[in-house]
Amino acid sequence: EAQVTQNPRYLITVTGKKLTVTCSQNMNHEYMSWYRQDPGLGLRQIYYSMNVEVTDKGDVPEGYKVSRKEKRNFPLILESPSPNQTSLYFCASTSAGVESAQYFGPGTRLTVT
Amino acid sequence: AQSVTQLGSHVSVSEGALVLLRCNYSSSVPPYLFWYVQYPNQGLQLLLKYTSAATLVKGINGFEAEFKKSETSFHLTKPSAHMSDAAEYFCAVTYFSGNTPLVFGKGTRLSVIA
What we know:
- The complex is a heterodimer of chains A (113) and B (114).
- With 113 residues, chain A is mainly beta.
- Chain A is built from no helices and eleven strands.
- In chain A, the strands form two sheets. In chain A, strands 2, 4, 5, 6, 9, 10 and 11 form a seven-stranded mixed sheet that branches. Chain A has a four-stranded antiparallel sheet with strand order 1-3-8-7, with no helix packed on it.
- Chain B is an all-beta fold and 114 residues long.
- Chain B has no helices and eleven strands.
- In chain B, β6 and β7 (64-68) form a beta hairpin.
- The termini of chain B are far apart.
- The relative contact order of chain B is 0.33.
- The interface between A and B is medium-sized, with 29 and 22 residues.
């Protein structure tokens, strides 16, 4: 079954404690991205990756890092989380070509206190 | 640059009534347009997409959308609302298939009243 998985699904942490949210896809897609969803703001792209070792900033990259060492994995790293990073995070994987579509993970709800 | 405007952050319809969710886009090149649905506590699911083929696009769950270049619109419709359609709906635009980012609208929450 084609899917995008994220872990953890829920996380409560404290300001400044480094954390990583993992994302993995089994569809051999080259393009992956991270979004955050906030009420009234829709989804905003944090970072994206067009292939292994190729990453670039999206609309709201401040306070986040990513890496793409393997095609299937695209972890999101918060080196020093702050309360304004409390949000719902989605990883997405995109198929290429005319029939492209983004496949979204189930989401990670992060609370930073 | 691409952008999307969804008119109405909250739309409420009666069960059995027409659903109309509005989306207008801005793009300097021919767009690819998408509608996604998000049910409570779930991720996003693709409803339908326009990729420069037929202007009337049919999706899942009885939804369809029509691409109107002259109006720069891609409104989502369903003839008869069902209680299970209650969710948040997002319109999104990109300009190339595959490896380009999607730009999302802010979403429209659809409520269905019995």
